[in-house]
Input
Amino acid sequence: MADKILILTGDAAETLEVFYPYHRLQEAGYEVHIGAPSKKKLQFVVHDFVDGFDTYTEKPGHCWDADVAFADVDPADYVAIVVPGGRAPEYIRNDPDAQRIVQAFMERNDPVAATCHGPLLLAAAGVLDGRTSSAYPALAVDVTTVGGVFEDGGGVVDGNLVTARAWPDNGTWMKAFLEVLENARVPA
Output
């Protein structure tokens, strides 16, 4: 049986930040589950950068079924978690079960990946104090406000934590995360 990885997300997550790690981790041999506030069909979005706009734009993206509700997740069933960005982290950060899951992985020093707005969940879970994290650059203040160190990079590694700015960093983010996953494996 393949090791399992959980993606913590919800409606309005950035499509590319969910699907790229989902498929890349499957390709690397992991069983990947989508966790959300409830087990339902999720509506993702597409963020793009348009000349003349001060921030990104948002359009409807793909839909995908959640495999498990946060409340039903036993962190011991998974070897790692991924927190994509988009708007989902803005509200899942308030979910006590999402916070519980993140805290369990950080306490065990197991691999955690987050990108774009994903570090909002890490901040709400109280796990960024003293840690270096990337995020969507507008969230630098959110990282530093909770005692973290913001680094504007695409595959920022701080021990078990791998973070990035947004979907243009998907390649460097997942490359770094796969290296952390490989180094975390315990020989049988």
In short: The chain has one domain: 4-184. The longest strand covers residues 57-65. The domain at 4-184 is CATH 3.40.50.880 (Rossmann fold).
